[in-house]
Structures are given as C-alpha cells and as structure tokens.
Amino acid sequence: SSVNLQEIHDFLVSIAHAAGQTITSARPTTSRTGSKKNAADLVTETDRAVEKMVSERIRERYPDYQFMGEETYKPGDTLTPAPTFIVDPIDGTTNFVHTYPYACISLGFAINLTPVIGVIYNPFTNQLFTGIKDQGSYLTSPLHNREKLPLKPLEPFYDDSGNGGLGNCLIIGEWGSDRSGNDYDVKVKTFRKLCADKKDGGAMVHSIRSLGSAALNICSVAAGWADVYWEGGCWAWDVCAGWVVLKEAGGEIVDANPGRWKAKVDGRRYMAVRGGEGWEAVVKEFWGCVEGELE
Ligand code: IPD
Predict the structure, then answer these.
(1) Which GO terms describe its biological process (predicted)?
(2) Does the annotation flag 10 for ligand binding?
(3) Active-site residues: which are they?
(4) Which of 71, 144, 171, 242 is least buried, going by the fewest C-beta atoms within 10 A?
(5) Proportion of the chain above pLDDT 70, given as a percent
(6) In this predicted model, what pLDDT tens digit does every residue of 186-224 receive, in sequence order?
(7) Has 77 been labeled as part of a binding site?
(8) Structural domain count, the chain
(9) Same-domain pairing of 132 and 194
C-alpha cells in the first residue's frame, strides 16, 4: 500500500498545534522536575503527557505504522525499515523547565530508515517548520507566511580568493547531558579549537551558540540563521524531523566524526551544514578541529 505523505504531514501539523497548547499551558518548575540518566538529563510530566497524547492519536489513525518516542524508548529498541513515526514530545526540556522559550515538539516520519516528513513546532514563538521529502520545507510564523526555506540565498562559503569558510561561520554546538568521559572531553576541546584565535591554532569561527534543542538547531541551519550544527549524543527523535527540513532546504547531514560522509538517523552523531558552494570544504575544515573521536 502506498503511503500518503501529504496526509500524514497535515495530520502531524494538527497534532503539533494541539501539543503546543499543552506545552504552553504547563507550569513546570525546576524543583518538581525529574531526571532520567543523570541530574542534567531532565524529564517532566508534560513530556510524558504530550507523548501519550501524540502516540494515542497516531496509533488510532495509523495502526499499521511503527512508533518510537523519547519517553517510551527502552534500551535495545531499534529502528526498522518499516514506516515509523519518530517523536520527541518536548525537545529542549531543560529550556522548558526554566521557561526559556526555545523548545519544540518534533514529529518525524521515516521509511527505510530515511526521514521523509518533518514537523517541528515551537509553541512559545509560534514557529512551525515543515518538510516533505522532494517537496521542499517551509517556515510559518508571525513573521513568515509559509516561506520556503532557506530564507535567503545560499551564499558560497568561500570568496573568489578562497577566503572565508569555517572562519566566517556561525556554529551551533551543544554540551549535552553527559558531563564526563571521552565525548565530553572531545566537545570541550573541539569548541576551544573552533573558537580560538588563529594565532593559537584555532579556526576563530564567528561564534558558537548552545541553545538547547537539537530539532530547532537543525531548523536554524535550514533557515540559514546558522551555518553548521555539530552534535554527539542525541537521538533519532531529536533529528528525524529536522533532517527532512534541512535536506529540503538544500543542506546536508554528515557524521560528527572526521571522514564519515554518511550519517545515520539513529547514529547518535551528526553535523548539519547549510547548502552553498564549498560546503564540503567547510565540513573538512570543521573535522580538522574535532579533537579526538566521539564514541
Ligand atoms: C536534548 C536537546 C539538546 C541536545 C541533547 C538532547 P531533550 O533533547 O535536543 O539540545 O544536546 O542531546 O537530548 O532531552 O530536550 O528532548
């Protein structure tokens, strides 16, 4: 049976708006917030309530498709090639508990392990990012009336004399919730090298942002607001929806570790880069700043 992507997309947009109501009417507090793996890996009643609502509505409408959600995921669960909804009820939970208005619901749909629909909604700013494979991606917000992404022409990364590249980029990189071990060290050293002055061996990028939502970070690259987003440690539900939005905006996703041009949706390591001439060279420059290897 063929899958009607447009119909699923429209259904996910309506779910995103309903979830947005729940998210913005919640009154989370830092003291009532629970944690999962450690004290920095937060979860709230709202995350669970939204996932319950979303999964029930999806299962009722599409009983034949698989469902994977952040709050019901169990170690050992794996993605299969079957059509699968991949859902993060609140991406940016740390922001949500602090009432920092950068959080979203991220609704993705993948077939054959390839993301084909992405719906990402930040209910605090009323920004809706959507994409369907081969049909473009869009931003609808108080400032944008379903504008096609990227929001501006994709500039070449280098000028005619070969200047520019990574040094001209605005980077997004997250600290993640693991604050010890190899990957934490790799991140800290890599951030240092990216930002450091050239006379200290750094790339001296324009700056690094850490805003706390993988899905919205990828959408920022898709829009053209940032050039590169680099992350180790997040999950398929953090990236599936954004993947479609970015690819449809002309961007690419590769592995965060040097030399790996193919990223997997459940591979836990990602580098999202905007489109534009010279993007491969910028990826190589970035990999040259990765100090060590993410596990
Ligand atoms: C987290 C956010 C964060 C990223 C973490 C994710 P959550 O998702 O996307 O930016 O650095 O790896 O786990 O827990 O807020 O859904």
Answers:
(1) inositol biosynthetic process; phosphatidylinositol phosphate biosynthetic process; signal transduction
(2) no
(3) 70, 88, 90-91, 93, 238
(4) 144
(5) 100
(6) 999 999 999 999 999 999 999 999 999 999 999 999 999
(7) no
(8) 2
(9) no
